[in-house]
Amino acid sequence: MDYFSHFKIWVLTLSLIFQSVYGFYLPGSYPHKYNVGEALSVKVNSITSIDTEMPFSYYSLPFCQPQDGVKDSAENLGELLMGDRIENSPYRFKMHVNESEIFLCRTEPLSADNYKLLKKRIDEMYQVNLILDNLPAIRYTRKESYLLRWTGYPVGIKVQDTYYVFNHLKFTVLVHKYEEANVARVMGTGDAAEVIPTIGNEGSDIPGYMVVGFEVVPCNFMHNVQSVKNSKMYDKYPSPIKCDPTTVAMPIKENEPIVFTYEVTFEESDIKWPSRWDAYLKMEGSKVHWFSIMNSLMVITFLAGIVLVIFLRTVRRDLTRYEELDKEAQAQMNEELSGWKLVVGDVFRAPTNASLLCVMVGDGVQILGMAVVTILFAALGFMSPASRGTLITGMLIFYMILGIAAGYVAVRLWRTIGCGDHKRWISVSWRAACFFPGIAFFILTILNFLLWGSHSTGAIPFSLFVILILLWFCISVPLTLIGGLWGKGTPY
Ligand SMILES: *[C@@H]1O[C@H](CO)[C@@H](O)[C@H](O)[C@H]1NC(C)=O
């Protein structure tokens, strides 16, 4: 983290505050028109693995770097918290211009460390995640007669103990013709002219396109390392490149450079701009999610059943013992005093650690409320996956605001239980404000040290840590105290 990145995180914080004040800004939420020939640049996100769940920066591997240096382009705090690290990449296209055999770079000869690292990342099934105009790259694979859809493509592949890096990428960009009328309907507002930058009358004649799909086919091609010795980035590769995803040709070797190339074709598509995200929402993965949701529901029901049975047995055993103990007293009791009324004294007794109970109930309400409000907003489409990071940003904001509910519920319950003097409401609200964030902070710090140690992009930068603490202290804590004051009501 250099000085600039720290500065950037503070700017993102300011934008978080403005976002919460002026409503949500959705990045990529209205169409961008590209004129024919206009530059399109691909961004890279962290490389990820479903195997290790630990994201790393794309440039931690020996890939080609952009000519003007690697730059961060995070848009909100949520992205950083999710471990996304979006950076620029050397891949760039010209709108509606097909290009083939573009030479990207010849890396330095692989050092022993880099060679080992590449093999490790391939073994761990790491994926490269590319983004064009806010759309993640999609890859299709054929399994028997099914077409499977994936985001990202693997770093490489291991075939019979030999490692291959995908060194040639075949991009397909789906585009849709830009029409003013089309866009006005997309925005659904009368004042579309205000929102969309107007290009002017003469501008309308130039055909413009919107990006509605981004596909990638990774290939391994036998490059001639010597032939590109003097080539520069974006020069034409001297011989034709045939991209065949079913075969591999060029293994990685220590002390040998890797050559990277790519090609791009533009295809006009019927997909309209508003539905360009449909493909991602209909991923094969969603079926798996339903399955795992059902799975966890069943596990929860099963566990709850066990707890219930144990609980019932305990209560019943206690009751029988109780009945045996004072059989004589029972004889004198009238018929009404039976069943649960026997345990009335226990049920309405204040628990030994009343303030902890109040604090936990208050924090529980806060977290539950955050979940409900977030899901509600997500269902209304405010936090679509098209705007990376807004889900987490939204959760943060709702959590902070709902501090008021935590304070209110905790103090209210404290009053209801009625133990101790009601003047201690301040201490109860303080504890409600610190309890869950304290635990979360403790766990996060430990996890973060582990991630820092492994240089994963999942680690939260130090300045972000400071900001989270400041936000908590300046917004969440005061709101919890206000909630507590409100819950206290008038002293009785
Ligand atoms: C680019 O290539 C695709 C596929 O071959 C073709 O359909 C399309 O018309 C080409 N576009 C241009 C601008 O040449």
TrEMBL record:
InterPro entries: EMP70. The keyword Transmembrane applies. It is found in: Endosome membrane; Golgi apparatus membrane. It is a multi-pass membrane protein. GO terms for cellular component: endosome membrane; Golgi membrane. GO terms for biological process: protein localization to membrane. Pfam families: EMP70. Keywords: Endosome, Golgi apparatus, Membrane, Signal, Transmembrane, Transmembrane helix. Residues 1-23 form the signal peptide. The chain crosses the membrane at residues 290-312, 356-383, 389-411, 432-453, 459-486. The keyword Membrane applies. Belongs to the nonaspanin (TM9SF) (TC 9.A.2) family. This is Transmembrane 9 superfamily member.
